[in-house]
Amino acid sequence: MTSVISARKLSKRYGSTQALDNVDLEIGTGRIVGLIGPNGAGKTTALKAILGLTPFRGSLQVLGRDPRRERHALMSETCFITDTAVMPRWIRVRQVLDYVAGVHPKFDRSRAEAFLGETEVRPEAKVKSLSKGMITQLHLALVMAVDARLLVLDEPTLGLDIIYRKQFYTTLLGDYYDGERTILLTTHQVEEVEHILTDLVFINRGRVVLNETVEAMADKYVEVVTRPDQAAAARELHPVFERQMFGRPVFLFSGVERERLAPLGEPRTPSIADLFFATVKGEAA
């Protein structure tokens, strides 16, 4: 597997806060990776390190380059969308395209214009007249028009209504992702992206607490809803987490065969959100 991102003992401290704590991470070509964590877990700090926006300790290679020393070359092959990305409110859409065409050697203006032609974003419109969803479409048009090997998305659909969120990910998969590009995204709306992810990285308190392919996760983790009178038998199989749902015990198992769990209830693959909840709560216990 060719590594797009390779981190060893990646660490970052802000005063007394350890934002990243000896993180090891390997992300290969053509993967769609969800970097999932609670607020303050270290997600944004990790993205900043990957993009060369903050100093760090440890080893980090992105597209074969050190982001601290080779950021200019790295950004020619990388695109980034964040919820906090801002554009001058006075600027017009066509001027945004003019600017990006002038600074990015791999920007295909005709491709951006074709994408925007399918939206309500007009070339003469000023950014201040655009809705949040339309601004996201403009960002997406810029990204789609750059021949980048790595796309980093930091809460890209935060605050958008469900229609814009669906359109964003549909466009991302249909028109951008080709199996060769790599996408790294953070989001709190896990349920909306779990069907597109190939890999999961859970981060909590600056440490990676789970790093699995989605395929391996489905094989390894099993969730079972039992009757209360079956709870003791379930606990004998050493679940990694237990919770209650509508008065019934729910157990999460790791590495236990589904055949052994079938007498307790119907084994099922946990959702990413449920697995994340169990992992983070288990860390806190």
What does it look like?
- It is a single chain.
- With 285 residues, the protein is an alpha/beta fold.
- The protein has two domains: 3-205, Rossmann fold; 216-284.
- 31% of the residues lie in helices and 28% in strands.
- A six-stranded mixed sheet has the order 5-6-7-3-8-9, with helices on both faces.
- It is globular.
The name of the CATH topology of the largest domain is Rossmann fold
What's the count of strands? Answer: 12
Backbone CA Rg: 21 Å
**Numbering strands along the chain, what is their spatial order in the largest sheet?**
5-6-7-3-8-9
Give the N-terminus to C-terminus distance in angstroms: 36 Å
**SSE class:** alpha/beta
Number of domains: 2
Helicity range of the residues? 25-40%
Specify the CATH architecture of the largest domain: 3-Layer(aba) Sandwich
Largest sheet, in brief, is: 6 strands, mixed
Low-confidence stretches: none
Helix and strand succession?
EEEHEHEHHHEHEEEHEHEEHH
Shape: globular
Classified by CATH, the class of the largest domain is: Alpha Beta
CATH superfamily of the largest domain: P-loop containing nucleotide triphosphate hydrolases
